[in-house]
From TrEMBL:
InterPro entries: Mercury-R_MerC (IPR004891). The chain crosses the membrane at residues 21-45, 57-77, 84-103, 109-129. GO terms for molecular function: mercury ion transmembrane transporter activity. Keywords: Membrane, Transmembrane, Transmembrane helix. This is MerC domain-containing protein. It comes from the Bacteria. It holds the Pfam family MerC. One of its GO terms (cellular component) is membrane. The keyword Thylakoid does not apply.
């Protein structure tokens, strides 16, 4: 008699891996947006009219990506990775601060870029901590 049990392949992505990948991608896209887009618009001013993004877009991005990042960070804290939680909260705080503090556009770019970098680094470090076998060379 054969056993009927559900077998999932070992390479099947876990929900945390998918969420972590999404947050890393979002952080890097945010960084590209903060650094590359202003350079592109400065070099081609005519593009600024067609690529004008509403301020609310930044708010919606933080409101959508923030909870996913927070969920991942809380899971890291449950696994006693408190440094990852702390660095991630700093990154999220910087992204929110860039939205609500009365700063110049340059200051907003700097604050957002540091927040995005720290959040991307946090999620990469957390992913590597969850997959330590990837750090060992065979």
């Amino acid at each position: 008699m054969s056993e009927s049990r559900r077998v999932t392949p070992s390479h099947a992505p876990k929900a945390a891996d998918v969420a972590e990948g999404a947050t890393i991608t979002a952080s890097l896209l945010c960084l590209a947006h903060c650094l590359v887009l202003p350079l592109l618009l400065a070099s081609a001013p005519a593009l600024s009219q067609s690529l004008a993004l509403p301020f609310d877009l930044h708010l919606w991005i933080v409101l959508l990506a923030g909870p996913v990042s927070l969920w991942i960070l809380i899971r890291a804290a449950w696994q006693r990775r408190h440094g990852i939680l702390l660095l991630g909260l700093c990154g999220l705080s910087l992204l929110m601060a860039a939205l609500v503090l009365p700063v110049t556009e340059r200051q907003e770019i700097v604050i957002s870029s540091i927040g995005s970098l720290s959040l991307a680094f946090t999620h990469i470090a957390n992913w590597l901590a969850r997959h330590p076998r990837l750090l060992v060379h065979s």
